[in-house]
């Protein structure tokens, strides 16, 4: 099996498990932990929703000026973690890789698909800045509503998508007595994909 085939197999495995998560009734299979870090290696993590995935990587959206946006601009690497306890005996998928911004056209298309309330919220939010009261935020939402009344809401210039381009994808399958099964797909420095099993 070539390294290209291994990459395709890893993504196909993710897609199959993603479908299993839906069939198993996971409350939100798109929920993932996104871990980022500052240049001086101070990590932070939060739950974000996966919005797209394909051979190029895994996509989520956010403000450039929030903490994760700032960290990804300074240190464009991230780790993702999916946890689906209802799939089989529990499944985790870990992804690590470099991060790039999606094309403007891709971000525009996704933003246009969002509910209008979410679009207005993106304009109203100064993500991660101090908020003196909920009323202040509600006022900003109301102002955005007036500003865009009767017309489409455009994507804010500081709101975009990030694509994590996988360099490591690990599939963790839970088993009784902690005899778990782990498969690691990894791209080496030459860009060649390899796969190996790991002890649990």
From TrEMBL:
It holds the Pfam family PNP_phzG_C. This is Pyridoxine/pyridoxamine 5'-phosphate oxidase. It catalyses: pyridoxamine 5'-phosphate + O2 + H2O = pyridoxal 5'-phosphate + H2O2 + NH4(+); pyridoxine 5'-phosphate + O2 = pyridoxal 5'-phosphate + H2O2. HAMAP family: PdxH. Belongs to the pyridoxamine 5'-phosphate oxidase family. FMN binds at residues 46-51, 61-62, 67-68, 92, 127-128, 172, 182. Keywords: Flavoprotein, FMN, Oxidoreductase, Pyridoxine biosynthesis. Pathway: Cofactor metabolism; pyridoxal 5'-phosphate salvage; pyridoxal 5'-phosphate from pyridoxine 5'-phosphate: step 1/1; Cofactor metabolism; pyridoxal 5'-phosphate salvage; pyridoxal 5'-phosphate from pyridoxamine 5'-phosphate: step 1/1. Homodimer. GO terms for molecular function: FMN binding; pyridoxamine phosphate oxidase activity. Its cofactor is FMN. Catalyzes the oxidation of either pyridoxine 5'-phosphate (PNP) or pyridoxamine 5'-phosphate (PMP) into pyridoxal 5'-phosphate (PLP). Residues 19-144 form the Pyridoxamine 5'-phosphate oxidase N-terminal domain. One of its GO terms (biological process) is pyridoxine biosynthetic process.
């Amino acid at each position: 099996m070539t390294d290209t085939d291994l990459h395709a197999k890893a993504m196909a495995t993710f897609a199959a498990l993603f479908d299993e998560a839906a069939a198993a009734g996971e409350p939100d299979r798109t929920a993932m932990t996104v871990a980022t870090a500052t240049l001086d290696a101070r990590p932070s993590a939060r739950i974000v929703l996966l919005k797209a995935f394909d051979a190029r990587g895994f996509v989520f959206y956010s403000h450039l000026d929030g903490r994760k946006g700032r960290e990804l601009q300074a240190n464009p690497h991230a780790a993702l973690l999916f946890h689906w306890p209802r799939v089989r005996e529990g499944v985790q998928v870990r992804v690590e890789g470099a991060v790039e911004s999606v094309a403007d056209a891709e971000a525009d298309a996704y933003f246009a698909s969002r509910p209008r309330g979410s679009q207005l919220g993106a304009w109203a939010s100064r993500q991660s800045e101090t908020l003196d009261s909920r009323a202040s935020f509600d006022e900003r939402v109301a102002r955005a509503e007036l500003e865009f009344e009767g017309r489409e809401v455009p994507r804010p210039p500081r709101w975009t998508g990030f694509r994590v381009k996988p360099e490591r994808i690990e599939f963790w399958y839970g088993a009784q007595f902690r005899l778990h099964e782990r498969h690691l797909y990894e791209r080496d420095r030459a860009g060649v994909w390899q796969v190996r099993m790991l002890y649990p």
